[in-house]
Design brief:
This is Transposable element protein. InterPro entries: DNA/RNA_pol_sf (IPR043502), RVT_2 (IPR013103). This protein has helices at 16-29, 37-41, 46-62, 125-138, 196-205, and strands spanning 66-71, 80-89, 95-105, 161-163, 182-186. The chain starts with 15 loop residues before the first helix and ends with a helix. The protein is extended and about 65 Å long. The chain has 208 residues and is α+β, with helices and mostly antiparallel strands.
Length: 208
């Protein structure tokens, strides 16, 4: 092919066997993260994932994020959910921590029904650099604060129901009924919701 010829995808010849072998080699060497609790249970490191899942559930329970599991009210479209699993690594690329986080699928929320306002002010880089310069110039003391599981402290301004997450047990009276008939009402904001950032800002604003 010369530089004046147009490249056409349809005219390319691909060695399917070679392409498959390369893809298989990549998949074999790539230790990907699980996508569900069911996948976690089938792995050799399941005990560590189990501890991470339980730690997340304990955190959600401690902050009273969820209400009771109830039959989904009429005309209510429960928000979906997703378990996100990650392994934190140190500077030597060794696994140092297993982390599980339950997030809401905010893309399934309906504007005007499941949320109204989403804006939350965030400091930009220029302002942050200015503050650091001011601290140095005036010889002040600067402190940074990190709030763990920040969004779980936000108080919701609308009623939001979520599908019963994997790992939650249905009430005894509902064990023989389809899981899809039930949902859980959120008492506080959750990662993934459209308004979570704003709910945290509103909560923080009460203290200054």
């Amino acid at each position: 092919m010369t530089t004046n010829e147009l490249w056409s995808r349809n005219e390319m010849i691909i060695d399917d066997i070679f392409a498959f072998s390369v893809a298989a080699e990549i998949i074999k060497d790539d230790d990907i993260e699980p996508c569900s609790i069911n996948e976690c249970t089938q792995r050799q490191d399941w005990p560590k994932w189990k501890d991470a899942i339980q730690a997340e559930l304990n955190s959600l329970e401690k902050r009273s994020v969820f209400g009771h599991i109830v039959p989904t009210p009429p005309n209510v479209n429960p928000v979906g959910y997703k378990w996100v699993f990650t392994r934190k690594r140190n500077e030597k690329n060794e696994i140092s921590r297993y982390k599980a986080r339950l997030v809401a699928q905010g893309f399934s929320q309906r504007p005007g029904i499941d949320y109204v306002e989403t804006y939350s002010p965030v400091m930009d880089t220029i302002t942050f650099r200015y503050l650091i310069s001011l601290v140095v110039l005036e010889k002040l003391e600067m402190r940074l604060m990190d709030v763990i599981t920040t969004y779980l402290y936000g108080e919701l301004d609308t009623d939001i129901y979520m599908k019963v997450p994997e790992g939650f047990r249905l009430p005894e009276a509902a064990r023989n009924k389809p899981r899809g008939m039930f949902s859980v009402k959120l008492r506080r904001s959750l990662y993934g919701l459209k308004q979570s950032g704003r709910m945290w800002y509103n909560r923080l604003s009460k203290y200054y």
